[in-house]
Amino acid sequence: MFLKGIYWDFLEKFLNQGIGLLVSVILARILTPEDFGLIGMVMAIVSFAQVFIDMGFSTALVQKQDISEEQYATVFYLNIGIGIFLTVLVFSLSGVISAFYKEPILSPLVKGISPLFLINSLTLIQTAKYLKEINLKPLTIYRGVAVTISGIVGIGMAYSNFGVWSLVGQVLLNAIAFTLLVWLLSPWRPMRYFNLASIGALWNYGSKIFLPSLIENLFSRLDVFIIGKLFSAHSLGYYTRAQSLNNIVIQYSSASLTRVFFSVVSKHQQDTGRVVEVYQNALIAVSFLAFGLMGILFVSAENIILLLFTEKWVASIDYFRIMLLSAYAYPLSSIMVNVISGRGNSSAFLRLDILKKTLLLLVFIIGFQISIKAFLYGFALFSFLSVLLNMYFVSREIQLSMMKQLGMVLPYLLVAIISGVSAALLQAYLPLPRVLQFLVEAGTVAIVYLLLNLLLNTKAFRLLKGKFMRSTDKP
Length: 475
Known about the structure:
With 475 residues, the protein is an all-alpha fold. The chain has helices at 2-30, 33-54, 57-63, 69-92, 94-101, 106-113, 116-121, 124-132, 137-159, 165-185, 200-230, 233-267, 272-309, 316-324, 329-342, 346-370, 372-398, 402-428, 434-456, 459-473.
């Protein structure tokens, strides 16, 4: 069930991110960096407010073992009420948001995208039930269809000169299509129950997850808020373009494993030995994928951006490379913090998050007083310290020392560095057309990375070899 869940969630990421990247490439060639900067300002507000719909309940529904229909229904109706409230609130504050950024066009954009809260509130229970059952095949299909339909419409709008509204239309239609598919094909329907007292235990757990999620959401968007306010929409467009590429490391190295990992830890939360075993394998797998992807993207950053998005996005190259210095942190941290939250220790989760956010606040205060690049370098330092803090808290939760955890991670970092340096040296002495440069750079990193893992017989290689041998042994 664990591997099946990872397979379907990874397939979802692969298809959706692949289709999304293709759509993004086409839109980036049609629209301007300013258009993407404007939608970045809007989506920063929307993404932050979105966390209030969930309020930690979906995580609680996955983590808790026995959930009644009364509890499901109560959370469902509560989510809808919050979705309606947020839609009205954000619609009403559109003028304030526009004035904050000093961008008059933001007011109608915010109003246009405000129904997203109500739309998204309609699917939280069904999504949580699929995750709880580790049945991710339906979500893969629903999201794949939704992102394809919305992408086609968004491109059509862009070609028809709708400008930034093409991006608004794409976001809204994606949510609408996914919601319709869930309600047409999902078997769950809410019963006519609403009893706030019934969800007290869920709130007791979820509230401790909600506050860190709220803080995390704020800090994950704070850079966009600040850049949109202090700099220009063009600068924010370049920044968000680099950020979207950097998210490839997150999506393809950990997102699938993390979502399934939390469900597995929640199911075996009382079996520490099982949790340790799953955690070690997950950490090794994520390290192997994350550092490998980082090496390929770092060496090929310039060619990737110029080939995909053209010369008008050249300012994104430096941002992208600096972001990659911390790209490993989110995948590793996601696995680590899910050990804590999955075992129900939401108090430790909250303490850890407050500590990390205190450090991150210093990075924001100091970094943006200098420049965007200074902030990104500061964030890279923070990311390293954050991983160490996560390891410390995990060591206390499951009695697995920090040294053992570092020993699982560092080999893949060192191998990725050697692979990247090898590709850079080869490219320096072998000038080629841009497309061939990219193929040589990416191919060299990938081949050297895999060969070194083979020669060193790393744990990740042994895990992969073991899976392959077991699959070939099947009749």
